[in-house]
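Postdoc handover notes: sequence design on the structure in folder B. Input tokens:
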């Protein structure tokens, strides 16, 4: 369906858990965040009900996120349930990959189509520092497993940070040349922990492009990513630029948090609670509530003109 600004809303990101097995510096404080109790997290049955209502409104693309979605017990069964819903045309996942190697085949068989894997450094010590203890070998075991079972095209998400991993830009680009891997450089957004005191780490997409002469721009987009590649490269390079090149005018998504809040926009604190609606066991009311939330979606975020960053961390909202 279209929102009040004529944008076709066809994509929902669903956080299945706020829990994560890492503590990335730009996402969480070192002590982590207080986890929601199991009674506050949406059940698989209710996630399925929400997806069925959203499909009826024309939302056809779904991405499972977290926290770390693979930390949710029974995640393969949820994938299987959602993949069977008539009208779900795309079912994907964003993960840090460290728990993927043992589950990739089962996820593929259940109906998951592809994965984005978050890897912010290719250097062991730096990866461990950014993630506060993450295992780069485990992440790349997940990458290799995804390639092996055909969870493709495989994308690596890289949050670009000045003075942190900007010295590895060419290393990531080389991966896209030699392997069928699409690299996605993402501008750091002032959300949660990153909005408190990490502004100095912001690195614009234009700054990254200036280090990459010879890039060929492709005559297409992948969602909100502007796509490029090098001649003969097996993969592509994408730039997701919510700060320097605001793409709100073409935004096609809404978000569902693990505790049942529908967010029309990532960058506002506005949330519509669906748990109370679900308890009424009225699927028509559920569909109407989602429709009204889409119609309340604003024209743009205001982070570039003095707007207040959201307080909830990405792990709580859904990455």
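Designed sequence:
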């Amino acid at each position: 369906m279209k929102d009040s600004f004529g944008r076709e809303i066809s994509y929902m990101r669903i956080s299945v858990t706020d829990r994560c097995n890492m503590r990335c510096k730009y996402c969480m404080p070192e002590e982590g965040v207080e986890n929601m109790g199991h009674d506050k997290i949406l059940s698989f049955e209710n996630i399925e009900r929400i997806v069925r209502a959203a499909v009826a409104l024309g939302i056809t693309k779904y991405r499972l996120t977290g926290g770390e979605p693979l930390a949710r017990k029974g995640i393969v069964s949820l994938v299987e349930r959602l993949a069977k819903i008539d009208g779900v045309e795309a079912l994907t996942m964003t993960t840090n990959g460290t728990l993927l190697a043992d589950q990739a085949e089962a996820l593929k068989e259940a109906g998951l189509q592809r994965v984005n894997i978050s890897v912010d450094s290719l250097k062991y010590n730096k990866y461990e520092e950014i993630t506060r203890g993450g295992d780069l070998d485990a992440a790349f075991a997940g990458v290799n497993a995804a390639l092996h079972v055909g969870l493709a095209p495989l994308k690596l998400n890289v949050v670009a940070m000045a003075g942190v991993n900007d010295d590895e830009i060419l290393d990531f680009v080389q991966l896209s040349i030699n392997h069928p891997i699409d690299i996605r450089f993402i501008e750091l957004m002032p959300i949660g922990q990153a909005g408190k005191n990490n502004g100095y780490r912001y690195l614009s997409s234009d700054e990254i492009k200036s280090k990459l002469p010879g890039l060929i721009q492709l005559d297409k987009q992948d969602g909100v990513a502007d796509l490029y590649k090098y001649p003969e490269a097996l993969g592509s390079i994408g730039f997701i630029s919510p700060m320097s090149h605001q793409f709100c005018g073409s935004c096609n998504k809404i978000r569902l948090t693990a505790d049942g809040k529908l967010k029309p926009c990532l960058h506002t604190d506005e949330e519509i609670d669906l748990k109370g609606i679900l308890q009424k066991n009225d699927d028509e009311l559920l569909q109407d509530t989602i429709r009204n939330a889409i119609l309340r979606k604003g024209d743009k975020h205001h982070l570039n003109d003095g707007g207040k960053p959201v307080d909830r961390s990405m792990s709580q909202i859904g990455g």
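Context for whoever picks this up: The first strand starts at residue 11 and ends at 15. Don't rerun without checking with the PI first.
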